[in-house]
Amino acid sequence: MTEPLHYRIEDGLARITLNRPQRLNAFNAELAEAWAEATVAATTDSSVGAILIEGEGRAFCAGGDVIDMATRFGGGSDIERLAKVINTGISALTSSSVPVVAAAHGTTAGGGLGILLSSDYAVIGTDSKIGSRYANVGLTPDLSVSAQLARAVGERRALQLLLTDRLLTANEALEWGIAAEAVGEGDAQEIAAAVRTRAEELARFWLSGAFGAYGQAKRLIRSRQDRTFQGQLDEEARTIAAAFGGSEAQALIAAFAGRSATR
């Protein structure tokens, strides 16, 4: 049986690959369990400094596998349990101090949008399409879509996407702020390869520099709604003080001072 997800660590980079290409990497129970296990492992492993999420085949993620749900699940309680398993991974990613990049080629829809929004930096293809489309099958947003979409694009735009069957083009996804970059040219396979290459370049960039500082910056932004404005100021002060005393900052500050002295 083909593994529904591949997980490996290479020189500090944890790579999570959704591997149900025949179903556009839509989540079934097996993928949900593997996803939760991999994301928790990646965010709790001290050797991991960056995480890359990608999908095999011609799409990033089509959300939940509704055909599998209809044939295997007995009712709504099964769907709720499945969503909570996947949410474990989403919470692990968004609450961690590890920066996450998504290589989201092809189509991203339904709960796949929540997976995309769980990354801190999203690279898509120039031919990518991104949308909600829950209501097309009579379902409602899950996998953090209602929690993260409005925060990312604003309430009015979130409603536009959730209340229609619209698929955003790559340029629209950039304009709305859902994705940071759209890359690639040629056929679908060439564009997918370009997306993966660019996403890995970003992850390696984090790893080659102050990845601890990048991770703490991510944590400050992601967790800011849990604090008052004054509480956020206090957390910023505490975090920069802790960073200043760390070996990462001390080495980089010393190098900066050395360069300045020679000018």
From TrEMBL:
<protein>
    <submittedName>
        <fullName>Enoyl-CoA hydratase-related protein</fullName>
    </submittedName>
</protein>
<dbReference type="Pfam" id="PF00378">
    <property type="entry name" value="ECH_1"/>
</dbReference>
<dbReference type="InterPro" id="IPR029045">
    <property type="entry name" value="ClpP/crotonase-like_dom_sf"/>
</dbReference>
<dbReference type="InterPro" id="IPR001753">
    <property type="entry name" value="Enoyl-CoA_hydra/iso"/>
</dbReference>
